[in-house]
Amino acid sequence: MTSERAFTILQTHVPASALEYCINLWKHSPFELKVTKSRQTKVGDFTSRRTKNHPRITLNNDLNPYLFLVTYVHEVAHLRVYLQYGNSVDPHGEQWKTTFTDLMVPLLWENVFPDEILHELRRHMINPKASSFADTILTQAFRKFDRNTSQMELSEVPEGSIFRLQGKYFKKGKLRRTRVLCRELQSKRDYLVPADALVSDVQLSLL
Asked: Is residue 81 a contact partner of residue 96, using CB atoms and an 8 Å limit?
């Protein structure tokens, strides 16, 4: 992969103030960078393709610039750890946490992130989790800047309404702590869905 191709991808997806830094990360340890369609199970990943000579990072194409940036650095940290330790350490262990934090520190400024994200991100980076989505408050801060305004959190959907999630339609039931009991309309089976899950095609209940 050429640096020009990496530049084109990053220029489209990261905040302008972080572009040069992201390009330099790529130049330090070049890798194949690919943008994919949205995936329900992950927003990015790193793979070595079983050899250190062909590392690859993929990121979802629908991420807002700030989440794309953090995910990019998250995966670059995986690459750095892999190049140094191979598969001999925990993927999200202390080596990765230290590397991720070191790579993020130069970005934790007002000219890169909005205040709403920056405050929560600085807190999160004290002890970063394997996924930023495990940090509910940080996730909510990111979602304020999502491009897709047709989605909403399940917690905001009135009880009894119909909604779409992962290609299936559900009816919202009662809240049970942090999850909502929902019935999948086709199978009639009940599922506990996280209250902060993003859903679409909401059909409000008239009851």
From this structure: yes
Give 95 or 37, the one with higher predicted confidence.
95
The values of phi and psi at residue 152, to 5°, are: -150, 160
Cβ burial of 100 (10 Å; 0-12, 13-18, 19+) is buried
Q: Give the integer Cα–Cα distance in Å for 109 and 120.
A: 12
Distance, CA of 125 to CA of 204 (rounded, Å):
38
Coil, strand, or helix at residue 46? Answer: strand
C-alpha–C-alpha distance, residues 21 and 191, integer Å:
43
Using the Cα atoms of residue 167, residue 14, residue 100 and residue 127 in order, give the sign of their dihedral. negative
Cβ 125 vs Cβ 91: under 8 Å: no
- C-alpha Rg value of the chain to the nearest Å: 19
| Mean pLDDT, rounded, of the chain | 90
Whole-prediction pTM: 0.73
207's tokens: 């009851």
85 contacts: CB under 8 Å, gap ≥ 6 = 95
pLDDT in tens, 74-110: 999 999 999 999 989 999 999 999 999 999 999 999 9
| 100 vs 189: CA distance, rounded Å | 41
Look-up of token digits 């927003």: 43
